[in-house]
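Course assignment 3, question 2. Fill in each field.
Student: A.L.
Task: Predict the tertiary structure for the chain below.
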Amino acid sequence: MSSVWQQISTTVVAEFSDLKDVSEITTLPTRVLMAALLGGLLGWEREQRGKAAGVKTHMLVAIGSALFVLIPHQAGLAEAELSRVMQGIIAGIGFLGAGAILKGHDERDLKGLTTAAGIWLTAAIGVAAGLGRESSAILCTLLALAILLAMPKVVDLFDLKEELKEEIKDEVKDEIKEKP
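Answer field:
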């Protein structure tokens, strides 16, 4: 009977031995937590704007993407196989993002494009973190946040300029009409 329990304990230990040394024990949480943090930042921005895909969605997409490349990489998969894993992630996330896009009555009435693109980018950031490219992941996250936060203000500024131009045109027309 003790040999059965010994065999069971040996099997359980073997099942949890995928992290062989301190380096791997440090690498896994560092990369996964980095992916979660960066995905969470993008999700926070979307949630602040009242979008459906918020913090949890972006964090889960980033963690999942990181794990999909981290685990095969640690298992020693060749670069060619790892590229196929990334192709699968890209296609799968594209499918997820497509579900976020809603088309209205005409071609210009589309909603969810930024959400879909954000989920896609979050997956890419998760892949970068999972591959140990944390600096690239951080840089892309900061760039995405700058775009998401600044571009609406820039667009509003240009819209105000257009409105001002129209007002000036209207005033000039009115002045021309009033002159004899």
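Instructor remarks: Helices lie at 2-15, 22-48, 55-74, 79-98, 113-130, 134-178. The chain has a mean pLDDT of 85.
Grade: pending
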